[in-house]
Amino acid sequence: MPLARLAALHGVATSYSPSPGRTVQAPDSAVVATLAALGVDASTPEAIGHALEVREAEIRERLLPPTVVGRPGSEPAALADLPPGTSLHIETEQGETRASALGLPPGVHALHATAPDGRTARAHLVVAPEHVPGPSGRTYGLLVQLYSLLSERSWGMGDLGDLTELAAWAGRSLGVGFVQVNPLHAAVPGAPTDPSPYRPSSRRFPDPVHLRVEDIPEYAYLAGPDREKAQGVLGRAAALRASVLDKGALIDRDAVWALKREALELVRNVPLGPGRRSAYQDFLAAEGQALQDHATWYALAEVHGPDWHTWPEGLKDPRSAETARAREELRERVDFHTLLAWLTDAQLATAQRTAHDAGMPIGLVHDLAVGVHPGGADAWALQDHLAAGMTVGAPPDAFNARGQDWGLPPWRPDRLAASGYAPYRDLLRALFRHAGALRIDHVMGLFRLWWIPQGQPPTEGTYVRYDAEAMLAVLALEADRAGALVIGEDLGTVEPGVRETLHERGILGTSVLWFERDWDGTGLPLPPEEWRADCLATATTHDLPSTASRLTGDHVELRAELGLLTRPVDEERAEAATDVGEWLALLARLGLLPDGPVDEEEQIRAVHRFLLRTPARMIGLWLPDTVGDRRPQNLPGTWDQYPNWRLPIADAEGRPVTLEQLAASPRLHALIDVLRA
Length: 677
Fold this sequence. Notes:
By secondary structure, this protein is an alpha/beta fold. It is built from 20 helices and 21 strands. The longest helix has 31 residues, at 274-304. This is 4-alpha-glucanotransferase. Belongs to the disproportionating enzyme family.
């Protein structure tokens, strides 16, 4: 069938398997729309025939693909297909010139090939280590949504000052090896701001809402009226903090940012000293056009709103003459946003340095969201590399009959390859800069993503395949340069062979206790010795019930209260009780629970004793579990029915718990003692 052939040549699937032995055909309309997003006209039989001829001729006649992948010490496989007598000219990233691809250093090199018949080709040659760095030994760490970690100094939500304090205390006093946080990506501005850290404006730069304003050196030099104004802001920040900690208010990101922006407008008036000025200039030079684009978008958003699709036509193009003029007209605002990016980067560096100084072998684990908001800064600046009119999601499966639409524009695989994966490399390099490890949300997206034409339901989508060899090579290259680990979130339905490939490249998986069962056999909980070793093992995540909620069944009652159940509540309760009962029975058989009646705290400790029995290289402790928090940070399937991403860490009664109270909590220390044993 010509359409299927054309789709295959562009990496577009015409069918998929939601479960073993079952194949579902993708709608032709989805395939045609996806090809159109890749610049291929398949709207008529004649168009399909022409596009097929063009693509087959292109593949037949080209000497090299746009990006070639190799490993140190071996010749890239793509070069084996070159005609005999083809000469190579390689300009390495390090400035050398070579005539052979053997023995090249790691990096992204420029490859030129000339065939005997006169044909020439240019390609990006990515030479990357075979594996990403691995853990030096077994370690445990804390998992926390930073905004939820308030201290007595926070301005209404957790910030980088709190993260630094947590790292110093946890590393020195608890022997913690890492702290994993939610994505700190820059959010789309506006009121109300989308509180989800997984749908940001930019993944390339962090959000200045996380700044600890008082820790900025220039803050100490505020004087006169500006000092008085800053004191007034501090007073309002204290009231905002108290509203969350003492009065039951939700975390209000917009209110926090309004206060911090007011204070930062004052701080920017303090001149930088010579050393600080030099550091700032170095940052501007290193970040280059990407930072200018980022700051320009935020400056333009202040004038025209936070969705670039609604801007005046000339401003929709980041390279237009109109945008260049607007950048100069708004230079003062552009400079403000570049300054914020530098200040935030500096505090991230301090947090990671503090973690290492406190003895953590890994330190901070940053989180990479799947994509970006379609109206945000990255979607504007990188629109040539993103598929217009498409959104990423998931097909229907056993857990969600309607599928999912995440509202994120996908990378175009063809444009990534043509650029040598430049925006992907830049993104990874920025995230690794102050990280000991990087968690990649939905790591399966390095292999394929479910594309949905905008305006269509998720059922009307199809898979688009990426060059996983190249995506993983770039990831390995940047991880190796940073000396950082990589953790892939590989929960749920995973295409056959993906976990094996990730394992071969040294990428750790994610194993959550409640999902680890003998699914191909008895269906019972998986004994600890049968768990995989190369993973981060946890009891829960931000999208799942806390351990206390799971053990008590509170998660079922919450979903029932919100009308989210698809079965009678008694059936849900019975299934949840059976699930927990089977796990507790295994814990008891292994001697991880004491004889006789045990309370919830002892059960949570037993769960973590079990995690220690597995061979997992990394053990993650969900920080809210240390004080018995019942509430999930995010309840998938809800929007305004539940306060997703707006809850402070709380105890079993729902009372917010500060960082200072966590440090003094007997319950926390009893659980930590289990992991340190």
